[in-house]
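Known limitations

Files may contain more than one protein. Parsers should not assume a single record per file. Below, a two-record file is shown to illustrate correct handling: read the sequence, read the token line, then continue until end of file.
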Amino acid sequence: LLALLVAAARAGPRTLVLLENGNLRDTHSLFFRSLADRGFDLTFRTADDAGLSLIKYGEFLYDNLIIFSPSIEGKG
């Protein structure tokens, strides 16, 4: 149990990056690299991923969420 706690403490903030398409990972690689360099643990998924889950066993799987969807127009 102690080893698990130590491993969890070493990991950076768990961050889910939702991408509209896989190309965004390449076109924004400098941004993602800067986050990783600051200790963020990035997980990349597409928004239409059927296996995507934010909560498991009542616990949040991620500390942060970044949504990259440039084709959707903002309102407000």
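...continuing to the second record:
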Amino acid sequence: MESMPGQLRDAGRDASSSPSSKQDAQGFSGPGSLKPNQVSETSLYGVPIVSLVIDGKERLCLAQISNTLLKNYSYNEIHNRRVALGITCVQCTPVQLELLRRAGAMPISSRRCGMITKREAERLCKSFLGAHTPPKLPENFAFDVCHDCAWGCRGSFIPARYNSSRAKCIKCSFCNMYFSPNKFIFHSHRTTESKYLQPDAANFNSWRRHLKLTDTQSDDINHAWEDVKAMFNGGSRKRTLPMSTVTVFIYIDVHVSP
């Protein structure tokens, strides 16, 4: 992965000189109209990442991101974080996978590759690498949120109060009590219009999946909500203690026969 920029340039020359590649893609292109299977290169946190146009959207190679920007994190950590953030991977076709191989984003032995949008890639990387800094919002701003666990509930998520994972930053619209996000999804009120829904394996770490905005919002509000959800999501890894500081006590119970 360290020779990625050179691989990208070589792949660009190979793709432009191959007759079959001209039929499959347009080669590396700069900004402009997006064409199906168009291969480009974009910068993510200062690292060049291969992008591919799929269904009219520019998508980035998740495997390449995992092997470069997120190389210090395990597959399970990245997968669980992606699911928690609601990011869905689009699997590329065999033709698209070959284009990614030629571009140096995937090894020759690869069998499949998941693709995510650049915005999703930024959210994912920020949850691991970015500081827990709240997005810039008006001082008294609050998100109108709801969940459908049990009888469901509505409330106001106040970003200014969200300074830790256990902060009581959601005010219930029915009883005016404050809850942390992971407790709010277990709080519900029965109304004449509500229907009981069995919680879908709700747990204290799944509030990002169950909590949602009540109404359709602008892109800016949606992006701010995504940024808030990415905060305090376990991005900082626990440091392992050096062996010299770990003391192991072994107790041996010896029974002596008379």
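Parsers that stop after the first record will miss the second one. For reference, the second record is described as follows. The CA atoms of residues 65 and 71 lie 8 Å apart.
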